[in-house]
Amino acid sequence: MNTPIVLMIIDMQKGMSWPQAGVRNNLNAERDITELLAHWRGKNQPVVHVLHHSTEPDSLFWPEQEGAEPQEMFLPLENEKVIVKSVPDAFTYSNLEVWLNTQGIQRLVIVGVSTNNSVESTVRSAGNLGFKTYVVANGCFAFEKKDFDGEMRSAQEVHAMSLANLDGEYATVITQADALLLCKQ
Amino acid sequence: MNTPIVLMIIDMQKGMSWPQAGVRNNLNAERDITELLAHWRGKNQPVVHVLHHSTEPDSLFWPEQEGAEPQEMFLPLENEKVIVKSVPDAFTYSNLEVWLNTQGIQRLVIVGVSTNNSVESTVRSAGNLGFKTYVVANGCFAFEKKDFDGEMRSAQEVHAMSLANLDGEYATVITQADALLLCKQ
């Protein structure tokens, strides 16, 4: 019998779907994450919902407003683990590592936003801590951003550079089909 | 009286100077780090040397060969802290966080290699943990690398994207002059 494999959904809150969040790539990520979530629930595999609560009142993630609420299609069920964080990395100052270990979970499939910020920080830590970590490329997205030399990088460029940092070093970057198959095993 | 400010030098080992390491940017980083190290020592401020020891025998950082040794100009002095790590993030499975706290160190100036790997992981964790963290742009370097869409990115592009991920979110990216000034305060 295989050990459990967790689906971790990062920062898919209402504010992330608002125009103020920025110009993004992977417009079908919500559909793909919804499919993965239904699949995971159907297989009775564990799900972790990571929610960001900012410490800055003007943030889209300030907890006392709608932007911080989970998007409707990703509302946690009662038996699902929720991690509330105030920094990008879901492992920092949370009980996530301990919880995964007590559940016997060694394999993580990670989706959410943004690829180069909360997703990348959490995936780096997961890999550093020794978890077998997968990132679903189509289930993450990023926002356009200037690089430090002042050159505007498209959301897809930011996303692709971030995945290249992660793949083979901290995690394995996979497709939707790979992810569905992992949860069937 | 100000609290101490630490200079953290990441992975400046002999293997990083070999051609096998790849095509890099910031060819003057060694000179600039040497200047910072002399300045820090002159001001009696703390220095942390982070050394990578790979778990893969064919790595440039496999501990039982010259590539893993510190470069001559960055050899730690007896009173300086050394962290040996086997994953990119110097905080993972090390006593670095505890050591900084027991020394009363809240401010970190980080240099080394590579910008988008060990430097970025360590800086992300430092920022997430709440340390006031600075990255000296000219004191770090990266290597050319394909992004996940298969496009070759120059070392400077990789470096500039990584610094953009860090600046304002996990750290403040600064110049050599800024760093020298920080240690004078």
Keywords for this entry:
homodimer, 185 residues, alpha/beta, Rossmann fold, six-stranded parallel sheet, two-stranded antiparallel sheet
What would your notes on this structure say?
The structure is a homodimer of 185-residue chains. Chain A has 5 helices and 8 strands. The model of chain A has no long low-confidence stretch (mean pLDDT 96). Chain A is α/β, with parallel strands linked by helices. Helix content of chain A is 30%, strand content 22%. Chain A has helices at 29-42, 96-102, 115-129, 155-166, 176-182, and strands at residues 5-10, 47-52, 81-85, 107-113, 132-141, 145-146, 152-153, 172-174. In chain A, the strands form 2 sheets. In chain A, strands 3-2-1-4-5-8 form a 6-stranded parallel β-sheet, sandwiched between helices. Chain A has a two-stranded antiparallel sheet with strand order 6-7. Chain A has a single domain, classed as Isochorismatase-like (Rossmann fold), CATH 3.40.50. Chain A starts with a strand and ends with a helix. The interface between A and B is large, with 36 and 36 residues.
List the helices and strands and how they pair.
The structure is a homodimer of 185-residue chains.
Chain A: E1 5-10, H1 29-42, E2 47-52, E3 81-85, H2 96-102, E4 107-113, H3 115-129, E5 132-141, E6 145-146, E7 152-153, H4 155-166, E8 172-174, H5 176-182
Parallel strand pairs in A: 1-2, 1-4, 2-3, 4-5, 5-8
Antiparallel strand pairs in A: 6-7
Helix pairs in contact in A: 3-4
